[in-house]
Amino acid sequence: MARRHWLDPLARKVLQAMGDLPKDPLRVDTSPAPSEETTVAPSWCIDVNRATAEQWRQLPGCSDVMVDQLLRLQQGGVQFSQIEDLAQLLDISESLCEQWRPHLIFRWHGDAPQLPKHSPLDLNAASPILLAKTLPWPDERLERLIAERRREPFQNLADLQERLCLPPATVEALIGRVRFGARPAGPSLPPRG
Asked: Which stretch of 61-75, 81-95, 149-163, 177-191 has the lowest confidence by average pLDDT?
């Protein structure tokens, strides 16, 4: 049997990489073959930010409504950085989330966003004052948001993006930071002073 060096394994690997120690002899793996119960890597994966409708439909429980919403956001330039974004956006269960997880790859195309730090703001119910304090938007955009949500509550980010003509960067900044609940009541946005 080859004599092992007295250094800890990490130091030994460093010295081997530098050429100061010979490489360890190859060892034959005598462990038993994996059983059928062993978790197997998924045979297919999708890039969440570039997926086609057919790829989304491969996921168990991914409905046509979900596919439509995801494609609309993708066409609007919106990207996702984590599965929690999808779970919140699509309102999917934890178990479905775990079924999807091995098949999803989150490749960010461009600069990565910052993750949210606060609980989500309900864009359909938040007061105009809270909207003005929370969203760094121009007054005209906030007024349009309030007028549109009075007409009909927003359903999701894709609906918000389309109705307000929001740029992708603005929508990406809202992922995980907003939700779409009940219809609001109350006055319009007060003037900023």
From this structure: 177-191
Residues 101 and 51 in one domain: yes
- Does residue 162 sit in the same domain as residue 132? yes
pLDDT tens track for 68-83? 989 888 887 888 878 8
Does some domain include residue 95? yes
CA 49 – CA 79 distance, rounded (Å): 5
Sign of the C-alpha dihedral, residues 126, 130, 134, 135? positive
Domain count, the chain: 2
- Chain center to CA of 134: 21
Indicate whether 86 pLDDT > 70: yes
If asked whether residues 100 and 144 sit together in one domain, one would say: no
Angle ∠(141,85,77) on CA atoms, nearest 5: 55
Measured between alpha carbons, how far is residue 163 from residues 51, 138, 155, 179, 190 in Å? 24, 16, 11, 16, 22
Q: Are 48 and 105 in contact (CB under 8 A)?
A: yes
87 located within any domain: yes
Confidence of residue 42 (pLDDT cuts 50, 70, 90): low
- Residue 100: domain span: 46-105
Render pLDDT for 109-145 as a digit per residue (tens, 0 to 9): 665 444 445 678 899 999 999 999 989 899 999 999 9
The reply to whether 127 and 101 lie within a common domain is no
